[in-house]
Amino acid sequence: MSNESLELFVMLDSKGKELNNQLKRKIVLVDIEDSSDDELINNVRGNRVKPIRAHDFMSKKIQNFTHKQFQQHFRLSPTSFERCLTICGPLLKNTCVEGRKDTDERLQLLSTIWLLATPDSFRSVSDRFDVGKSSLHDSFVRVTTVLHKLSPTIINWPKVEQMNQIQLNFGKMSKTCLNNIIGVIDGSYIPIPAPKKSANSYLTRKCFHTITLQAICDDKLRRGNAHSTRSFRYTYVPGQYFIAADKAYPILDWCIPPYIDRGNLSDQEKFFNVSLSRARQSIERCFALLKGRFRRLKYLDMKKIELIPQTIVACCVLHNI
Question: What's the gap between Cα 115 and its chain centre?
Answer without folding.
Answer: 10
